[in-house]
Design a protein that fits this description.
With 395 residues, this protein is mainly alpha-helical. The protein has 11 helices and 2 strands. It catalyses: H2O(in) = H2O(out).
């Protein structure tokens, strides 16, 4: 079995972090760690201006995406009902907010639920544009992507055929330009909507974090806001398979069908390019403390950042010592530490030992009484933490 299948997390086998194995470790194979790499120029830029730039870039793109989808939905809701709507919305006299909301919810919840179901099986992609983006960032091999693409197209054709056979009336789920939208507008609408969805997947599923297991919720919500702004004008495809399947079932391809391939493909490239950009400039260091991986730990300053949570607020160990020591001990090796960092670690270890000695003196009598106590691992150390049934230590 492909080694990639052994990785953990949302979309398993695609986004887990691999570790190299050498013959000295008893293995001859290696796993490729998903890491676009840091640009060499980044290491020469002082951390303060670099972090300011990262924050500015994130705020610009985030504000643009937020207001773009908010404005798009508002534009649809305020459009007078005098123009011809899109066939997929079944709104011949213009947009109907209730119908738009219903269609958007159908797509959003369907994606969220099925992604949650199938992420352990195939990764839960369901979209050739998403597959393309994951291949571009190195999360999915191109060979695997080709097979997944074929399966997605077959699934889209099968689903459209079954719906046409089961439900009475003509199949009215095709995607066409509506609301007076021209081809260029439709192309860029599809591009930006797809970029939003794909970038959400990259940040919530590809990037490992504490909320990765909830990624399907965020992905479904991303599709929801995209559909609100796009259903009336383009049918809100964002997915070549979603547009191709109904056309095959109806044996009819509109002249603008190509935009439902080119638009999502451009959106996937746009999202993948921006993802590589923020990875290259180490976006994690601009707003540290969100997930606290190794990169954030290296940039952690115990004198200015004491925001890390404590496992038990009633723990005997001093909070600041626990937080800082846990941050510094996240590195498995001290070889890459700077002299200043080594001195800080030594100082924290000394404070920790002093805290341990003090706590043993203060709680020695209570420990002999046999009350249950739990363990708290801090770095490579183990200390005892009072349980809920313990009384406060007598100082």
């Amino acid at each position: 079995m492909d080694r990639l299948e052994e990785n953990r997390g949302f979309l398993p086998g695609l986004f887990g972090r691999g570790k190299k194995r050498s013959a000295s470790n008893g293995g001859s194979t290696s796993e490729k760690k998903l890491n676009p790499g840091t640009w060499s120029v980044v290491s020469r830029v002082p951390s303060r201006p670099r972090n300011h730039f990262i924050a500015m870039a994130g705020e610009f793109v985030g504000t643009f995406m937020f207001l773009f989808f908010a404005f798009a939905g508002t534009q649809v809701a305020n459009t007078p009902q005098t123009t011809t709507g899109n066939q997929s919305t079944d709104l011949p006299q213009g947009p109907n907010p209730s119908a738009l909301l219903y269609i958007s919810l159908c797509f959003a919840f369907s994606l969220a639920v099925n992604a949650w179901i199938f992420f352990r099986v195939s990764g839960g992609l369901f979209n050739p544009a998403v597959t393309l983006a994951l291949c571009l960032v190195g999360a999915v091999p191109f060979g695997r992507g080709a097979f997944v693409f074929i399966a997605q197209m077959l699934g889209a054709m099968a689903s459209a055929g079954v719906v046409k056979a089961l439900f009475p009336g003509p199949l009215a789920v095709t995607t066409n330009l509506g609301g007076g939208t021209n081809v260029a507008q439709g192309l860029f609408i599809e591009m930006f909507l797809t970029a939003q969805l794909v970038f959400t997947i990259l940040m919530l599923a590809v990037e490992k974090h504490k909320g990765t297991f909830l990624a399907p919720v965020g992905i479904g919500l991303s599709l929801f806001i995209a559909e609100l702004g796009g259903v009336y004008y383009t049918g809100g495809s964002l997915n070549p398979a979603r547009s191709f399947g109904p056309c095959v079932a109806n044996v009819s391809f509109p002249g603008e069908h190509w935009i439902y391939w080119v638009g999502p493909a451009l959106g996937a490239c746009l999202a993948a390019g921006f993802y590589w950009f923020i990875k290259g400039i180490e976006f994690q260091t601009a707003n540290p403390g969100q997930d606290f991986d190794d990169l954030e730990a290296n940039a952690f300053d115990p004198d200015t950042d004491l925001s890390r949570p404590v496992v038990n607020p009633n723990a005997v160990v001093d909070r600041s010592t626990t937080q800082n020591l846990a941050a510094l001990n996240r590195d498995e090796s001290k070889q890459s530490m700077s002299p200043e960092r080594e001195r800080r670690l030594a100082s924290l270890e000394e404070r920790y030992r002093n805290d341990q000695s003090r706590d043993r003196r203060n709680t020695d009598g209570r420990s002999r009484e046999g009350r249950p106590r739990s363990s708290l691992t801090i770095g490579n150390h183990m200390t005892q933490v009072p349980t809920a049934n313990d009384e406060p230590p007598k100082l």
